[in-house]
Design a protein that fits this description.
Blueprint lengths: L2 E10 L2 E11 L4 E5 L6 H8 L7 E6 L2 E2 L5 H7 E4 L11 H6 L14 H13 L15 H14 L4 E5 L7 H16 L3 E5 L3 H7 L2 E6 L2 E6 L1 H4 L2 H8 L3 E6 L4 E6 H9 L2
Parallel strand pairs: 3-8, 3-9, 6-7, 7-8
Antiparallel strand pairs: 1-2, 1-4, 4-5, 9-10, 11-12
Helix pairs in contact: 4-5, 5-6
Length: about 260
């Protein structure tokens, strides 16, 4: 397994946040983590990334205890892609991606030819090579998100942790980013993403993990997990899940909207 989380528990002081979380992801899997605000998704990510070491239970990266992995090697094993990034200076896209190679150079050294080549290869993987010398702050939100994914690829990390990577994007850019995520999974990358979009999770995931009150309450294939009762349990909204095209697509909508539509002339 690329990632094994076993009986993970974490508390902020006396307040428990994660309670016996179990996750197993194989190489090449896209897993979407669904759950309401405050469910513990960000805390889970921080534990996996080594930012919150005070947990109990185990986090195994390709079978190795994450606690025993040196920080530099951990940075090469796991990469993080935030919702958005607003740097203090207007770097070029290439400079942003080069930041992903920092674990491979000494503290005060500049990136060399090998790092530049790795950054350009990462951009090329995402069809972003033509953007290398453009200003990061002057490209679209979707292009910025792809640049952040390229930065993660340049780390040579095979496990990508994505925290709502399409939350601030328009529908077109959401699709473009998620299509690239699927292509990365086909190349062997493992992606764990948090999302508040259940329809997106169904379309692009191999596995859906549902989280509530610090626990994984459901896990499995999108067809097995993505149901109206689960959406109601997670979000407290009476929902209806409609199947389209022989169940290739499922759409989750509030029942009140369905009832309203039925009443319209």
């Amino acid at each position: 397994m690329m990632l094994d989380v076993r009986n993970l528990t974490f508390s902020y002081g006396q307040r428990p946040v994660l309670q016996g979380v179990d996750i197993s992801l194989k190489a090449g899997c896209v897993a979407s983590l669904l759950g309401p605000n405050g469910a513990g998704k960000s805390t889970l990510f921080k534990c996996i990334l080594g930012l919150l070491p005070g947990y109990t239970g185990d986090i195994l990266l390709q079978g190795e205890d994450a606690r025993r992995v040196p920080l530099k090697r951990l940075a090469r094993s796991v990469a993080y892609i935030p919702q958005a990034h607003y740097p203090a200076f207007n770097y070029t896209v290439l400079d942003m991606v080069l930041m992903g190679t920092s674990s491979r150079v000494s503290a005060f050294a500049s990136p060399g030819k090998a790092e530049v080549a790795a950054a350009m290869q990462a951009l090329d993987t995402l069809q972003m090579a033509d953007f290398a010398h453009r200003d990061y702050m002057r490209i679209s939100g979707g292009e910025q998100q792809l640049a952040l994914i390229a930065r993660a690829i340049a780390q040579h990390s095979r496990l990508l942790i994505m925290d709502e990577p399409t939350a601030s994007l328009d529908w077109g850019n959401q699709i473009r980013v998620m299509q690239q995520v699927r292509r990365l999974s086909e190349q062997g990358y493992t992606i764990l993403q948090a999302t508040h979009n259940p329809n997106q999770a169904y379309l692009f995931s191999d596995e859906i993990l549902a989280m509530r009150s610090g626990r994984i309450v459901a896990a499995g294939s999108p067809r097995a997990v993505f149901t109206a009762p689960l959406m109601e349990e997670l979000y407290g909204i009476s929902a209806q899940v409609e199947s389209l095209r022989d169940d290739c697509i499922r759409v989750c909508v509030p029942r009140e909207i369905c009832a309203l539509e039925c009443e319209l002339p």
